[in-house]
């Protein structure tokens, strides 16, 4: 039925049916990118969480696989991560067939209902068959709750201790701060530090962190700590902030206390990075959940709910001496481009899946209008140092009073390059190759038909996208 599939994206990842939220457990192994996700298979509304699963060879074409991890007597399976244990430190496999170990939060609904506070713990499971089947560790939970209600979303990465030896580090969201734990075998965990009380944005609970080693433009090592927060994002509801600093002695020290956002739009949440990307690829890849807890359970799709953002590559850049994080579309997305054509001022759109590029010449102001025959529109602009996506008249919005609005973000430096990805219910804006990013859901009653540019935009190109 067409109306049921109306908002099904062409190239964004969605579950075949039912509910999805956060991306989980992403790792790369033997030519496959794995993507797990928070999933409730019995409804399009959030409920008892499972880990759904898909694999891809190119980050563009995804193969759906059976549910990977199901709830058990310890609780629902909340967000977490997975690592390839190449040295078999856990002993679950062998060096010849290294175990893949998933580390996730158990959320015990019984404890929650009974008003207890220790109902979130961390558990592990392993796979010896390239992520197809998972065995839960019989000693779960591996990290008990110390008496704090929000204690979740373990992101494990391999780091070096101060003697230079490899060590597993778990980055965990604990209510209003992050706690770090370390382990030699992924089973026994010891707290090594904490960060974040009184630093950064605190308009909501901290969730889904990630600790990432990156290079500065001058080649120096820096750690980036992603911290999703809900509510309290810059556009209301959910968003992901980040800190830049160092990681020593098992804890994170920020370079400064500036508040920074990875994506200034309303619809990029709980994004984390892939583990085990071969060093020859030399890139940091992340994907986010393209929704917002403000209205995620109400958006007007019928058979499934939620999509992921396009996969993105993260890197650091420097603007007037300040380090910031930028994100560009993963290069594999270029595979979707079915040629391109140049246009000026205005053009019809070739379909619901389109990429648009344009350059801004002298001024630092522009505007792009995307519309359909019903008079519905999205306006993307920069004016007075603010980059905005106006979705106030973009179509269906009656499901939530916060939806139909204008989202803006400050950009004090000049906008020069604009790149936009449109799909059935989304728009993703990358200014200056990802120096400023905004991701937004839109639900037009009829597909977008036309694009119009302000005259200072030059070299405009349209790329029809197809899988
Ligand atoms: C973030 C989150 C996580 C939690 C999961 C539950 O969106 O709230 O903190 O693990 O979703 O589905």
Automatic annotation (TrEMBL):
Gene Ontology terms for molecular function: fructan beta-fructosidase activity; sucrose alpha-glucosidase activity
Source organism superkingdom: Bacteria
Assigned EC number: 3.2.1.80
Residue ranges annotated for the Glycosyl hydrolase family 32 C-terminal domain, each copy included: 352-459
GO cellular component terms attached to this protein's record: cytoplasm
A single BP term in Gene Ontology: sucrose catabolic process
Short name of any one Pfam family annotated for the protein: Glyco_hydro_32C
PROSITE patterns: GLYCOSYL_HYDROL_F32 (PS00609), PROKAR_LIPOPROTEIN (PS51257)
Span of domain Glycosyl hydrolase family 32 N-terminal: 12-324
InterPro entries: ConA-like_dom_sf (IPR013320), Glyco_hydro_32 (IPR001362), Glyco_hydro_32_AS (IPR018053), Glyco_hydro_32_C (IPR013189), Glyco_hydro_32_N (IPR013148), Glyco_hydro_beta-prop_sf (IPR023296)
Family to which the UniProt record says this protein belongs: Belongs to the glycosyl hydrolase 32 family.
Cross-referenced PANTHER family: EXOINULINASE INUD (AFU_ORTHOLOGUE AFUA_5G00480)
Protein name: Fructan beta-fructosidase
């Amino acid at each position: 039925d067409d109306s049921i599939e109306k908002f099904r994206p062409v190239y964004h990842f969605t579950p075949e049916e039912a509910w999805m939220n956060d991306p989980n457990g992403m790792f790369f192994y033997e030519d496959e990118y794995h993507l797990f996700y928070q999933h409730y298979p019995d409804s399009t509304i959030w409920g008892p969480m499972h880990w759904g699963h898909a694999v891809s060879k190119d980050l563009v074409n995804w193969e759906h696989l059976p549910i990977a991890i199901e709830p058990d007597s310890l609780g629902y399976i909340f967000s977490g991560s997975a690592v390839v244990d190449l040295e078999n430190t856990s002993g679950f496999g062998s060096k010849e067939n290294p175990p893949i170990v998933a580390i996730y939060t158990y959320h015990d609904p019984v404890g929650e209902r009974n008003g207890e506070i220790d109902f979130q713990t961390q558990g592990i499971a392993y796979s010896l068959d390239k992520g197809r089947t998972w065995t839960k560790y019989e000693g779960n939970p591996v990290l008990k709750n110390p008496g704090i209600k929000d204690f979740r979303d373990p992101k494990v990465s391999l780091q070096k201790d101060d003697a230079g030896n490899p060590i597993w580090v778990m980055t965990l969201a604990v209510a209003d701060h992050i706690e770090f734990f370390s382990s030699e075998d992924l089973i026994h965990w010891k707290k090594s530090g904490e960060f974040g009380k009184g630093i950064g944005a605190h308009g909501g609970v901290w969730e889904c962190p990630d600790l990432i080693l990156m290079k500065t433009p001058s080649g120096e090592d820096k750690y980036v700590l992603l911290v999703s927060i809900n509510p309290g994002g810059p556009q209301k509801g959910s968003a992901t902030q980040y800190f830049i600093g160092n990681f020593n002695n098992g804890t994170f020290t920020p370079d400064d206390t500036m508040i920074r956002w990875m994506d200034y739009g309303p619809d990029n949440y709980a994004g984390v990075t892939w583990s085990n990307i071969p060093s020859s690829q030399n890139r940091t890849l992340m994907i986010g959940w393209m929704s917002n807890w403000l209205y995620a359970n109400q958006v007007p799709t019928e058979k499934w709910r939620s999509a992921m953002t396009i996969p993105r590559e993260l890197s650091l850049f420097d603007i007037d001496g300040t380090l910031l994080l930028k994100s560009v579309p993963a290069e594999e997305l270029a595979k979707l481009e079915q040629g391109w054509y140049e246009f000026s001022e205005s053009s019809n759109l070739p379909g619901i899946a389109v990429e648009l590029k344009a350059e801004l010449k002298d001024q630092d102001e522009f505007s792009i209008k995307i519309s359909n025959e019903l008079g519905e529109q999205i306006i993307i602009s920069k004016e007075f140092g603010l980059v905005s996506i106006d979705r106030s008249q973009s179509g269906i919005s009656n499901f939530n009073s916060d939806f139909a609005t204008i989202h803006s973000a400050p950009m004090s430096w000049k906008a020069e390059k604009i790149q936009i990805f449109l799909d059935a219910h989304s728009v993703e804006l990358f200014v200056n190759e990802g120096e400023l990013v905004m991701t937004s859901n839109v639900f037009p009653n009829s597909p977008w038909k036309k694009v119009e540019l302000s005259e200072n935009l030059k070299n405009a190109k349209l790329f029809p996208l197809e899988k």
